Amino acid sequence: MSDLLSSLAASLNAPEAIVKRSAEARAKATGMSVEEVLAAWAGGAEAVSSPKTQVPAPEPQVTTQMEEAAVATAGPQPVTPEPALLPPTPGPEPLAPRLVVPPVLAGNPDRLGVYVFGSIALLALSLLLGLVLPVISMPPPEVRSSALPYSDDALAGRELYRELGCGSCHTQIVRALVADVELGRVTLSDTNQVIGYRRIGPDLSMIGSRINDPLALQEILVAGDGHPDYSGLTDTQLGQLTFYLWESA
Amino acid sequence: MVVAAALGLLTLASLRFPSLVPAGLSFGRLRAMTMIAAVLGWLVLSVVGGIYYILPRLTATPLSGERLASLGLISAAGVDVIGVALVGMGLGDGGEPFGLPWWYDLFVLITLVIPLVVGVRTLTGRRERNLYPSLWFALGVLIWLPVLYLIGNLPGLTPFGTVIGDLFSGWGILNVVVVGGGTGLAYYSLAKESGNPLASRQLARVGFWSLLFGAIWAGPAQIAFAPLPAWLGGVAAVMGLALPVAVMANATNFALTLGPSLAELRERPSLSAGLVGSVLAMIAGVATAAAAFRSAAALVGFTLYWEGIVILLVFGAGNLLTASWVYQALPKLTGRELASTRLANRHIRLTVAGVGGAALLLMMAGLLTGYGWAGGAYTGAFANAGEGWVQSSSVPGLLTGLAALAFAAGSWGIWTLAADVLRTLSSGRATVQEVLVEETV
C-alpha cells in the first residue's frame, strides 16, 4: 500500500498522511478497504460503494478541509460523466474532464439547526435592538414640535426631493451638537422632513429662513455653481421643490 | 463589475466636480446606480455563484433545484441591469442604498429568495455530515440577505424609521453578504489552493458569530445625536465591537492557514486575493467600530468618512474576497488555466493602492470636515446649496478630488480582473476541468 500511497501523494502534490487519512475516511464511509480506495483514486480498481451508513470517526477538525481537498482532486470515479461545460469561444481544446466525487467524511457532525436558528436569532436580535425598539421608543416631543405645516405644493415637492435623491447630499436634521448649533432649532423625533444621509452640501432643514426669496432658491436648483443641474424639471416640479425648501423655515 | 467600477468612478468624480455629470443625474442617483451594479449585480451574484459552487462540493449532494438556481442567477442579472436603468431614468424612490421603486423591490426580493430555497434544500439533504466553515457563512448570507433587503424597503415608516431601516439594511448587506459571503468563499479557496488544512475551526467560529453580532451597528452610529433613544448609542458602540473581532479572527485564520504558503502569494493570486481582501475587511471593521463611539460619531457623522468605509468594503474587501474564489474555481469550471497571473497580481495591487487609497483619502476628508464643523466652520452662513463644504473648503475638497483619482487606479484594477476572466474563457491554456458527479450509493 505504501508504494501506491506514495505515488498517489506525489501525483496529488499532497502529504502522504493527509492522503492516507482521506482514504481511511472514504473507506469508512463507503465500506471499502483503504487499498481499494487508493487503487480507485489512482485510476485502477473499480470503487464500488456500499450502502453502509456513515460512522462518525474522531477526525481532527482542523484537517477536514484538507481531506476534502485531497478527495476532491483524487481522480476518476466509476460514474457516468456529465457533459462538460465548455466556453463557446474558440481556443485550445480542453483536456478530458476530471470527474470529482464530493467528499463524504466521517468527521464530527455539526448540527445544521444551530447555524440556522443562530443566524435567525441574531438577525431577530439586531432587528429588535437596531430598528424596532429605536423606532417605537423614540422620545416624543413635549413642548414644541418639529413637524412643519407644509402646503400641498410643498408636500408634492417633498416627494420630488425624496425621489431625486437630494437626501444623499443634504440633511434636514439639526443635532444637539456644537457643529450644528448655528443651523437652527434641534430637530425632534416627529419631524416630517427628509432626514438625509450625509452633508456634501449644506443642511436644508431651515433653508427657508436663510434664503427667504423663492426665486433665489430656484436659481440655485437650475444654475447653482457646484450644484447638479435640475433644469430638466418641469416648471411645476421646480415650483413644488422650491416651495418645499422655502417652507422649511 | 466593469459597469460598477465605471459608475463608482463617475460617482466619486461627481462629488468634487458636480458639473461633470449629465443634467438630471446627481451624486445621489449615481450612488444608487453604483450600489445596484456593484453590490447586487456584481458581489451578490459572485457570492451566490460561489455558494452554488461550494455547496455540492462540501455537502456531497447535488445542488437541489439546479434549474431554479440558474434561472435565479440569470433573472437576478437582468433585474439588476434594469434596476440601474430605472434609477438612472429618475424612476427610483431616492432611498439608500439602492433607491429602487417599491414595486421593483418585489422582483429583486424574489431573486434573493431563490438562493435561500436552493441552499437550504441542498443543505438539508446533505450526505456529508460535517459542516465546513464555508457553509456557515453561506447559510448566514442566504438567510440574512432577503430579510435585510426587505427591511431596507419597508413602506410607511416615519422619516427617522426610514433612515434607520435604510442604514440597517445597507450595512447589514455590506458586512454580512459582501464581507461574510466573500470570507466564506475564501475559507474554501484558500484551503483548496494552498493544500493546507484550516488552521483553526474555533477562530472561524468566532469570526462567523461575531460578524452576525456586529453587522448592522454602523447605521445607528452614522446618525448619532439624532433624537433617538439614548441607550441606542451605547448599544451600537458595544455591539459594534464584535465587527473588528470578527474580521480580525478571519484574517488571522487565513494567515495561519496559509502558513508556509505565504511565500507563494505572488504565484497564487487566489491566495493573495483572499488574504489581502481579509486585511482590507479588517481595516474597514476597525474603522467602523472606532467611529461608533459617541465622541467619534459626533465628529464623523454625515461626513465622507462613512463613504470611505463603504468603498473599502465594496470595491476593496468584497472585490478581493470574491476574486479569491474566482481565481481558484475558474480553471476547474472551464478547463482553462488562468490566462495571466501577472494580470491577477496587477488587479490585486491596483485594488490595494487605488481603492485603499481612495478610502483612506475619503476618511481623512471626513475627519477634517468633522473637525471643521466642530470648530464652527460649518454654520448657517453656508446658505447656498452650491456652497457645500466639500466644494468650498480647500483641503477636504482636494482630498476628495485625489480620492477620485486614486479610485481610477482601483477601477483599472477591477477592469484588469474582468479582462483576465474574459481572456481565460477565450484563450486560456487547456487544463483539467472538474466535472462534479454523484457517487453511486
Q: What does the overall shape of chain A look like?
A: elongated
The number of strands of chain A is 1
What is the typical, i.e. mean, pLDDT of chain A?
Answer: 74
SSE order of chain A in H/E notation?
HHHHEHHHHH
Q: What order do the SSEs of chain B take from the amino end to the carboxyl end, as H and E?
A: HHHHHHHHHHHHHHHHE
Give short descriptive properties of this protein.
heterodimer; A: 249 residues; mainly alpha; 9 helices; B: 441 residues
Structure in words:
The complex is a heterodimer of chains A (249) and B (441). In chain A, α2 (16-30) packs across α3 (34-41), α2 (16-30) crosses α4 and α6 crosses α9 (235-246). Chain A has helices spanning 2-12, 16-30, 34-41, 64-72, 112-136, 152-163, 207-210, 214-223, 235-246; one strand spanning 98-100. With 249 residues, chain A is mainly alpha-helical. In chain B, 74% of the residues lie in helices and 1% in strands. Chain B has helices at residues 2-16, 27-59, 66-88, 102-124, 133-151, 159-194, 201-214, 218-222, 230-240, 242-258, 269-291, 294-300, 305-334, 341-374, 389-392, 394-427, and one strand at 434-436. The longest helix of chain B has 36 residues, at 159-194. Residues 379-389 of chain B have low confidence and may be disordered. Chains A and B meet through α4, β1, α5 and α6 of A and α2, α4, α5, α6 and α7 of B. β1 of chain A pairs parallel with β1 (434-436) of chain B.
